[in-house]
Design goal:
The structure holds 2 protein chains of 2 kinds. Chain A is an all-alpha fold. Helices cover about 40% and strands about 0% of the residues of chain A. Chain B has a domain of about 45 residues. Chain B is built from 7 helices and 11 strands. Classes of the chains: A mainly alpha, B alpha+beta.
Chain lengths: ~240, ~260
């Protein structure tokens, strides 16, 4: 064997050895485990904390609310859309409560009228749809329904019902102002419901309460005297121009 | 002669040393691999899954709850340039113009549409990383810091990324950005940390109209498989042969 061959072999072996060593220290341990990347990166990404617990997580403790939601129009809404991320609450319920947002803006995120939304999605004009009242007064957030007058009145008084439904008196049931006996529905002309008779009736809600509440207040002694309230205001649509 | 003998002895010594140097780590590696494979067998098995997402444009109401939830779940910076997912509003005009807007990803709502009389059609399109099966971003990464997992998710190894921005340039969907604090590329992970726990991504979790459908691409029993069978499916920029796994239903031809 010529003298230079073993020397060359030695040089090669040392070079390869150094390379292998360098690779050992420079290439991360799990590189190439599954492909051209660090296998351990997958585990570290998988270990990030979860913040949204998921819609299945709430039912074991809030069963009745969940059942309500599943039966209503909001069946596809996760609890955490409205209550924020609640994974920490779900694992330790007493250590922190999820937020409860009661303002109209929450509902309007989805229900404000927007021409880009798909047709058929229920939307309201936020400027005219019962502006002063929180949405929850009329629609339960967990099972919202457009409030309806009991069918027993709207069947025959549809016009009044539809008018009242969009008025500021929408929350008031017909029977708040009219005592309607059962027999009125069988024999409407013979048995008539009562109607309010005096100013004090309307005053029951519209005077004597601290100002700043939801119901606008007037001075019963002076406002509109000596007339009956409904000589100026139509009771089924009280905000109509006078 | 004696010189040569010395050399031979020295050489044998070198050889043994080199063999030890080279073979030692290999042996160590083999031992480590064996250990790694032995870990808890009941846990999540990536090779059993292959994920994709379906998006029904006709159902999106543009409420951007997905954008909000994604930012929280993944600690995405709140500034309006960083999004793993975002909502675009398309306005097609009667004269053929197309306007696309996404102010703050849709988080703060959208401004009223100007010249309403000239609107032909308008709708929302949710966007996110397409988790391509043939992703240009992975091809350009010089160090192997971005990759496809065995379950089909494109991820970034944030402790290995060198922040060169090639992948951000390469992505045809604009789905990547430079994380301002970590100084590495960041993007949608399909909420990989949720998937391994059997949860769906946060954006899918909070979508109120089921406009987003998540699941397995190939198995026939998941909601996504059903979605793919019952809808006319399009993908974004099919001509680039990126083979996206974000499947759009009811997508208008104008959407890019």
């Amino acid at each position: 064997m010529p003298q230079q061959v073993p020397r060359l072999i030695a040089v090669f072996v040392i070079a390869i050895g150094t390379l292998v060593l360098a690779r050992r220290f420079l290439v991360p341990e799990t590189f190439g485990e599954f492909g051209h990347y660090r296998g351990a990166a997958v585990d570290s990404i998988a270990a990030r904390p979860v913040k949204f617990a998921g819609r299945q997580a709430c039912a074991p403790c809030h069963g009745s609310i969940d059942a309500q939601r599943l039966a209503g129009h909001h069946r596809d809404l996760a609890c955490e859309i409205c209550h924020g991320p609640a994974a920490s609450h779900a694992s330790a319920p007493l250590s922190g409560k999820p937020e409860i947002r009661r303002e109209r803006a929450l509902c309007l995120l989805c229900h404000a009228f927007d021409p880009s939304r798909p047709t058929g999605f229920p939307q309201v004009d936020s400027v005219t749809h019962n502006t002063r009242i929180p949405c929850m007064t009329c629609h339960a957030p967990h099972a919202p329904e457009p409030p309806v007058t009991p069918r027993e009145c709207s069947a025959c008084h549809g016009g009044i019902d539809r008018q009242k439904a969009v008025s500021h008196h929408a929350t008031l049931r017909c029977t708040t102002c009219h005592d309607a006996p059962e027999s009125h529905r069988q024999n409407p002309r013979a048995v008539l419901p009562t109607k309010p008779t005096d100013r004090a009736f309307c005053g029951g809600c519209h005077s004597g309460m601290p100002p700043g509440g939801l119901i606008p207040q007037v001075d019963l002694e002076r406002h509109g005297q000596p007339y009956l309230c409904w000589q100026c205001h139509y009771p089924h649509f009280p905000e109509a121009g006078i | 002669m004696s010189d040569a003998g010395m050399d031979r002895r020295a050489f044998v010594g070198d050889l043994v040393a080199a063999c030890l140097a080279a073979g030692g780590p290999v042996l160590l590696g083999v031992v480590r691999m064996a250990e790694a494979q032995g870990t808890d067998p009941g846990a999540y098995d990536a090779s059993e899954h292959y994920y994709g997402i379906g998006i029904d444009v006709a159902k999106c109401i543009g409420c951007a709850r997905c954008v909000a939830a994604c930012k929280i779940e993944n600690d995405v910076p709140l500034e309006p340039t960083y999004f793993n997912t975002w909502i675009e509003r398309y306005v097609l005009r009667t004269n053929g113009d197309v306007e696309v807007e996404s102010p703050n990803g849709g988080l703060d709502g959208f401004p009223p549409i100007r010249r309403e009389g000239e609107v032909l059609r308008t709708f929302f399109v949710p966007k996110l990383c397409n988790h391509c099966a043939n992703p240009p971003c992975v091809q350009v990464c010089p160090v192997g810091a971005t990759f496809i997992t065995r379950d089909g998710v494109v991820l970034v190894d944030d402790s290995y990324c060198i922040g060169c921005r090639y992948c951000i340039q390469a992505c045809p969907y604009g789905a990547r950005y430079m994380h301002p604090e970590k100084h590495v590329a960041d993007k949608c992970t399909f909420c990989y940390h949720r998937l391994v726990k059997g949860l769906v991504p946060a954006c899918v979790e909070v979508c109120p109209t089921n406009a987003r459908v998540f699941g397995e691409v190939e198995k026939r029993v998941t909601p996504l498989a059903r979605f793919l069978r019952f809808n006319d499916i399009q993908v974004l920029k099919p001509n680039l042969n990126t083979q996206p796994k974000a499947y759009y239903a009811n997508l208008d031809g104008e959407v890019r």
